[in-house]
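Give me the fold.
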Amino acid sequence: MENNIKFNKRGEKFLSFMKKYGYYIFAGLIIVAITLTVVLTTTSKGSDLNIDTTPPTEEVDAYALKFDLPLADCSILKVYSSDKLIFNDTLGWFETHHGLDLVSAKSSDVLAAAEGKVTEIYTSDLEGTVVVIEHNEVYTSKYASLNSDVAVKVGDTVKRGQKIGTTSASAKNEVNSGAHLHFELFMDENEVNPADYLNIEEK
């Protein structure tokens, strides 16, 4: 009889406990079940994914293009100057100078400063014979005061160091300088100082 009374008391306590806290226990079990379901489903789907482990391709920086000397063992006869006036002894006045005048005692061969495409060849009284080469759709190099028998034609793709012509005194605005190369460089169609891109010394 005593056992029955104890059992009944325990049952009453359990029922009372469940009435008081059963809702919270039930809600907690549902949350745990939902969490486990989400974790297991995500893990299963993740194992079926095709993950590309190929490292990303690095973009080529066209602005980092390096230029070689357009004349072997050359030196600067006249510097680039876009803001200060330099005396032109051929014309007898001071003027800005939009390129480098280069000379070499060892070779008269004018070389492509970098790989590119020949976009223009023309002759004018002031500049002489001119070859223009476009590089990487960013840079443009211009070679003036060349001999008229250039070694390339418009549309040619030239390699770095390829001969494109020879120096001469065909630029009448600099004829007193003798046979030389007048070299100009442009970045995004804006004039830049070629000396900033070439390893060269002033004569």
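The helical segments are 2-48.
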